[in-house]
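Human: We require from you a standard protein entry with sequence in single-letter code and fold as tokens, and nothing else.

Assistant:
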Amino acid sequence: MRSCCHEVLARRVRQAGQTGVRSERAETTAIRPDLHPECANLDMHVDSARVRRPTRRARLASMSADPFDTRSVDPNSVDPSNADPNGGDERRQPPKPLVVLIHGEGQMPTSWQSQVEALADDFQLAAPWIRGLRPGAKDDFDMARAASDLMMLPISHGVRSMHVVGLSLGGTIALRIALEQPDLVDRLVLVNTHPEPSSMQLKVQAAALKMMSRRRLAAQGINKDAAQAVLKSMAADRVGDRLGEIQADTLVIASAGDRNRSDAATRLATTIPGATMELLAGGQLLNSDNPDGLNDLLVRFLKP
């Protein structure tokens, strides 16, 4: 049985073999370089060929907060008073709701570009790196630490809570946030998320990953050591038995026509209280495979 993470890695390897590593990106728009020290040397770009709405793109360029600013929040430097929606001034208009977009294994923050464009009018947006997954990162991936980092985002954006959208591994991290800090999560969206891979699935993924060369994985932005750390962390971090504790309004989205994903989505939707489920055409990476379909579901579910 092929697992979700295995499919993502295999797909990236196939793409690397077909297209090679591009040494130049002629049609790109640079993302701000003033990132967390862990990301300081990262060359992040958004492919301008995929930007279909110039007016939205212009608005994104003028946003006061860069949604792809991947600096981690230092808990010691965060002022709790920032969580006051009006900043202590009743005449001040409260900030827009915050949506946090958590990428999947083998992706990067800018994988959410289309969703940022679709949601920019109504929300504050944050699409951070999952700590430990950036190519060249010094920190090892750890599920608890990755979730803890993201729990600080509402305070840094001046709100008390957030909506969380996670894809694949990002969805697993989103589940942990919703379980550990239920008051922080208003609405939860889980895209092609498996609540708890079986031991056999994890073994299959580990075996497949072991056979893939570092060079070909790196060509697609995948750090082999980080990917192995993800599998190890997922084996130790079991949340499947706690799904009934989730309090946030939840939307579960899965790729249609794929039994593995739809079965996992069905388990989530039937176990999480009040959750709803939607199927979309596309592969594992629905944020890029079917951006319009995903955007439509997100806008309808998240918009106030």
